[in-house]
């Protein structure tokens, strides 16, 4: 298979290429962290959970199950993945565990989730 080159630039901007490579090298750890967060949050159910936590501050697995019309074990799997990645945190009150977005990720998810628009029906 022959690789076709479609770039038609006359001359590469070597300074720009070096600058971009240096930027990627300097930010590699942050890019990796954000990429991992986005991969986990990219699942629709987990994104909905994060959206709900952004609005309500904290909820328990039963709340999520009722709201999302899913089983508690299914919700718990999603919560565990996000908790293991430290996207969310938890606190226990008696037998109930309440989940919240971790302090470390509050601003990140607030910026993303603030762009969610509600569809309002006008009568």
3D structure, described in words:
The protein has 123 residues and is mainly α. The protein has a single domain, classed as Arc Repressor Mutant, subunit A. It contains 6 helices and 2 strands, in the order αααααββα. The protein has a two-stranded antiparallel sheet. Strand 1 and strand 2 form a beta hairpin.
String of helices and strands = HHHHHEEH
Q: Give a quick account of the main beta sheet: strands, pairing sense, barrel closure.
A: 2 strands, antiparallel
The named CATH superfamily: Winged helix-like DNA-binding domain superfamily/Winged helix DNA-binding domain
Q: What Rg is obtained from the alpha carbons, in whole angstroms?
A: 21 Å
Low-pLDDT stretches are none
Say how many strands there are: 2
Please bin the fraction of helical residues. 55-70%
Strand order of the largest sheet: 1-2
SS-derived structural category: mainly alpha
Report the end-to-end length measured between terminal Cα atoms.
Answer: 59 Å
State which percent range the strand residues make up. Answer: 5-15%
Q: Label the CATH architecture.
A: Orthogonal Bundle
Average pLDDT across residues?
88
Number of helices: 6
- Name of the CATH class: Mainly Alpha
Short description:
The chain has 123 residues and is mainly alpha-helical. The protein has helices spanning 14-26, 28-41, 44-56, 61-68, 72-84, 106-113; strands at residues 88-93, 96-101.
Strands, helices and their partners?
Layout: H1 14-26, H2 28-41, H3 44-56, H4 61-68, H5 72-84, E1 88-93, E2 96-101, H6 106-113
Antiparallel strand pairs: 1-2
Helix pairs in contact: 4-5
